[in-house]
Design a protein that fits this description.
Length: 293
């Protein structure tokens, strides 16, 4: 195995057969993802069963709360896809195109994410972009940091609900109510501590973060607008390009991300597996994922 840190963010990993790694090697790679925040594996060739088996060595694979995202044979695989499979629509097209951290809108967020591009549109800009939330907190203007330290934010994903065939004739309000029955949203500290390294990171995103708790509406809007402008400054944004044979692996406690670069109508498919890593998302939360089937 050869691990090469990138000058910007993350590290590239070459010369590794993920099909045959041991649980101990997986633990070492987990330590590497906590350290580097993002790992980009190269030369990866795993089928669905291999992929799920590999993921189990890192922790408990997640089953996404909405079944229409699931791969028909492997419910642990979250399918982002616009190409029919065996004549059927599988998964959801155009997921994760807003800045977010996975499952931020749940009380127990998702610690680690694998994304494996399966069909990569031509053009070369399809990828996932990331912002380092540890570096962002460190670089934040003092007055902004002082204003948000100690606060909590409320997160909600209802505005990204993808309408399903069975939703026909339902009102928007009814759809929102149904979504909130399963995922009512969640409060989290605006600055979280990493349970393994103790690093502090900002934990907000313009996709999911709705407001700062116990702060006036005006003040909340003002602070969040400043935060998002700061975070989304192109100088803070790092690209991991999708290529055949690439597998991305990142730490949701230290990065926010979004999918980029797909032109309308271009075929695109990726397979995500979320990992509960046996550690609370931040100190004080329970160890997540124990109730995954
Ligand atoms: O369709 C999507 O963009 C999925 C998004 C609302 N949630 C992904 C996640 O794990 O937070
Ligand atoms: Fe995501």
């Amino acid at each position: 195995m050869k691990l090469t840190p990138r000058s910007s963010l993350g590290a590239d990993v070459h010369d590794i057969d993920l099909r045959s790694i041991s649980v101990r090697e997986a633990q070492a790679l987990k330590a590497a993802v906590y350290e580097h925040k993002l790992l980009v594996f190269h030369g990866v060739d795993l089928d669905e069963a291999d992929y799920v088996a590999m993921a189990r060595k890192f922790g408990v694979p997640q089953r996404y709360f909405q079944r229409h995202y699931h791969h028909p044979d492997f419910p642990q695989i979250f399918v982002s896809n616009n190409v029919p499979m065996g004549g059927n629509k599988v998964g959801v097209a155009g997921t994760g195109r807003m800045w977010h951290s996975d499952y931020q809108f749940f009380p127990e967020p998702l610690p680690l994410t694998f994304v494996m591009p399966k069909i990569v549109p031509s053009g070369g800009t399809r990828g996932t972009v990331f912002v380092d939330m540890v570096a962002a907190l460190r670089d934040l203007p003092n007055d902004l940091r002082d204003a948000i330290v100690g606060t909590r934010c409320f997160h909600d994903a209802v505005y990204y609900y993808k309408v399903q065939p069975f939703d026909i004739d339902k009102g928007i309000g009814e759809l929102m109510e149904e979504f909130h029955r399963e995922a009512p949203g969640a409060l989290h500290p605006t600055v979280i501590e990493h349970p393994v390294s103790g690093r502090q990171a900002l934990y907000v995103s313009s996709g999911f973060t709705q407001r700062i708790d116990r702060v006036s509406h005006e003040q909340s809007r003002l602070l969040l607008t400043r935060l998002f402008e700061f975070l989304e400054d192109p100088a803070r944004v790092h690209q991991a390009t999708w290529e055949p044979g690439v597998l991305l692996f990142w730490d949701n406690r230290q990065l926010m991300h979004r999918a980029t670069g797909q032109l309308h109508g271009q075929p695109s498919r990726s397979y995500r597996i979320g990992i509960y890593d046996g550690t609370p998302f931040y100190p004080g939360l329970p160890v997540t994922g124990e109730n995954q089937p």
